[in-house]
Amino acid sequence: MVKGVIFDMDGTMFDTECLSTKGWIYAGKKLGVDIPIALTDSFRGRNPQSIRKKFAEYFGDRLDYDEARAMKHEYFDEVTKDSVPHKEGLRDLLEYLDAHKIPAVIATSTEKKRASRLIHVSGVEHLIANAIYGDMVEHGKPEPDIFLKAAELIGQNPEECLVLEDSAPGLLAGKAAGGYTIYVPDMAVVPEEVKKGITEELADLHEVTAWIEKENNK
After folding, report:
1. Domain count of the chain?
2. What does the pLDDT average to over 42-57?
3. Are residue 70 and residue 104 in the same domain, yes or no?
4. Residues whose CB is less than 8 angstroms from the CB of residue 154 and which lie 6 or more positions away in sequence, other chains included
5. 32 lies in which domain range?
6. Lower CB density within 10 Å: C or N end of the chain?
């Protein structure tokens, strides 16, 4: 039985992964350097420290990470200053959880300062106020720390929580946390090997609502 739901944020709740990619492209153009999509794809689901490492491995001293990241944020913050696009079925799922008194929590690799602003302008903050941010845990995804901490925040056993994810690091972390793990695809390419052992792959959050209803009424 699902007694709590843990949401990844970017790409799972909010349709923002495409905006992040556009932000990196914007930064590359301003700096006169090609930042390949294959590289930005590898950032998905990872915390800033892990992204910094991957960036340095690719560019070395040829491009300053902090400068590029600041320009990426310049683009991203402008296009999300007043609102943030939802993934299909988000509001319905959150309202279902609220009506059935199933606690929900966000577990995002994004640091608190940036993620909390997105949550605030999302229009669903009243339905999901709990969150664990990437800068609140020592080990980011694919380690399970952030999901274990999220389950603790809502007072639930991790084994009875459902993790919703769209990235390989997130799915690995979800499986390691020991509960249900559902993959809701977005932009990230997830290898078949990573999908092994997950609970389910569903097309959107509408299907997640139906899955929880069925699971909790067996």
Report:
1. 2
2. 92
3. no
4. 4, 103, 104, 105, 130, 161
5. 17-79
6. C
Range 48-66 burial, b when 16+ CB lie within 10 A, else e:
bebbeeebeeeeeeebeee
Question: Are 194 and 147 part of one and the same domain?
Answer: yes
Residues 137 and 38 in one domain: no
Query: How many Å apart are CA 45 and CA 41, to the nearest integer?
Result: 9
pLDDT in tens, 75-107: 999 999 999 999 999 999 999 999 999 999 999
Would the pTM count as exceeding 0.85? yes
> Which are the contacts of 123, defined by CB distance < 8 A and separation ≥ 6?
83, 86, 91
CATH number at residue 114: 3.40.50.1000
Contact yes or no for 146/137 (Cβ under 8 A): yes
**pLDDT single digits (tens) 101-135:** 999 999 999 999 999 999 999 999 999 989 999 99
Q: Which of 79, 73, 80 is nearest to 27 (CA)?
A: 73
